[in-house]
Amino acid sequence: MTPTLTAEGHDAEVAARFDAAEGRFKATVGADDVRLRAVLRALGPVRGSRVLDLGCGKGRFAAHLVAAGACVVGLDLSPAMLERAEGVDRVLGSARRLPFAGSTFDAVIAIEVLEHVGDVGPVLLEARRVLRAGGRLAIVDKNALALDARRPWLPSLVVKAIDERRGRWMYPSGGPVRERWFVPGRLRDRLRLDFDEVRVEPLLRPEERHPVFRLAPAARLMTLWAAKARTQTARDGSARSGLGGDRG
């Protein structure tokens, strides 16, 4: 039976795993990286903007935002990863309880971060809280409906399950923490509870060379979810209506 962790226990387990695996993660990312390019498209011009990078790791994406003129704060659970994040303000902490006042940031980004948090609800609420009205949220994460790039006749989740059992994944099979992937439409609908202008964009990676990935974008692994923070008036209106936001 898989053990159940508290939120604090979950965060501690994730931090320990990243501390132990710190050497496996690259310190830089190229300007042509599809995840970076997608986030920059979603945010638009960032010069002079205050950006929060959730799960910043070694700051490899934050570095490009700094180069574009943004003031970036990087938050991460892992001390070992944060130690390597140079050139940005670094904060050790949890995305579930952000140590910032409301409306502090113009943008929040989360690149392959939500897959590690378990329950995404508190994280999305905290992201909304620290964003100014109209601020931008950009999430890049994995699509649970994707096909494997090397073997496109297999679902990526099947390949992931096999690798987990072989001990080739960050979290062991049967352990208390599992990497969670997302059905794009479901995460979109969750975002619509607190954000406006929510859109989903499948991202084509260089390794996805098989024609299926061009013909069927929904088969791609990486996905961008982009949204705009709802104004307080609109949020109050949704609460009064009893609808809790547009579920589409």
Model description:
- This protein has helices at residues 7-20, 34-43, 62-67, 79-83, 121-130, 156-165, 184-191, 211-215, 232-241, and strands spanning 50-54, 71-76, 89-92, 105-111, 131-142, 195-202, 222-229.
- With 248 residues, the chain is of the alpha/beta class.
- The protein has one domain (7-144, 179-241): Rossmann fold (3-Layer(aba) Sandwich), CATH 3.40.50.150.
- A seven-stranded mixed sheet has the order 3-2-1-4-5-7-6, with helices on both faces.
- Strand 4, helix 5 (121-130) and strand 5 (131-142) form a beta-alpha-beta unit.
- Residues 237-248 have low confidence and may be disordered.
- CATH architecture grouping: 3-Layer(aba) Sandwich
Count of DSSP H/I helices: 9
| CATH topology description | Rossmann fold
Strand order of the largest sheet: 3-2-1-4-5-7-6
| Number of discrete domains | 1
* Structural class estimated from helices and strands: alpha/beta
CATH class: Alpha Beta
Q: What radius of gyration results from the CA coordinates?
A: 18 Å
Q: Give the H and E element order.
A: HHEHEHEEHEHHEHEH
- Estimate what percentage of residues fall within beta strands: 15-25%
